[in-house]
Amino acid sequence: MKILTVLLTLTIAMTAGQYDKVKITPDMAYIYVYHKGKAVKVHRIQDTKHKITGEYAKIYRPGKDIQPIKMHKDVQTIGEVELLQFMTKKVNKKKGLLVDLRTKAAYKKESIPSAVNIPARVKDNPVKIEKILKVLGAKRNADGTLDTSKVLEVAFYCNGLWCDKSSDFIKTFLDLGYPADKIRYYRGGMQMWKILGFTTVTN
Amino acid sequence: MKLLYLAAFAISTLIVNANRVEIVEGMPYVEVEANGKTYKIERTQEAGAYLTNTFALTSRPSPPFFIEPFHVDDGVETFGELEVLDFISKKRGVFIDARLANWYKKSAIPSAVNIPFKIFLSDTPERTKTLKELGGEGSGVSWNFENAKTILLYCNGAWCGQSPTAIHALIEIGYPKSKMKYYRGGMQSWQLLGLTTIVPEVKK
User: How far apart are CA A62 and CA B63, in angstroms?
Assistant: First the structure.
């Protein structure tokens, strides 16, 4: 029994400070989210010499307009701290969905933990959109209008500050009658997530 | 035939000179003025350019570095790059680099003036002078900011607390929230988009 207690104390002591070198906020070193049924620890890379490399370190982006800070006056833009809160308070409790709008291939390679993939071009497919709305809790009334009184909150992201997929997709959602106050826009996207050293998952 | 060559040459020159990477479609660059100089702000045209300098670092040690919330305060608007460019090109107020001077000296966003955040934290002659320059009337801890200028502050990026700290200090002494804007992306997002930075001429 004594040995067990010692072991337990040791384990706690060893893991407690594991992500304290590079924390998220003063009171948050990591959070747990569910990704495809499995708990994933989301933290930041602890190597203070680590630099972003690869696709998301690219700064040459021809044909990619810088996106405004707000895509619609009533849709909230969020940063990483708010996204993490969304994950723990909404996604983990099945009250919200985090949607990755990038291509299937990009999502497969890596994504933000707890995100599901809806490639942005799906917005041109009314059948698929109708299915997605249903999954989100919207109901089609007999007169064709959309009952959104019980819909989930949705946060969207794509490649980054220069990616217009999120605003395009959100516009489609707004046009369909999805309430603006149930939508969040993580403008930083994959690129900001990665440059801040956050955990990603492969799918 | 000569004419054809000439035309071809003219067109090729146009293509070479045109920005392939625009800020947004139809806006290849923005001009800003500061200290009697005009600066052209554009995005990198260098094919295959990557961020490799210290702003490519993902993991700054905490403390002091943490991820800043999207909003400093409910009443203070957060800006992105397009809003910053509009603010500085149309001279809507004072654009403040709130970092310590050693950061600013290395590289900054064109037209920004350096007012290190520490100046705002305590009642000093330096703060009084700065607040007066920004249009405040008063002294010490008692100020009237009715005629104060709108200010836009930035620092190193989403992991930098210098501009949020300055904004909090200014809120405390009554600077109107509606007259303060926060560019959270800072130097890191600016460079991640390949936007122009300069080595400012620091007055001695």
Answer: 37
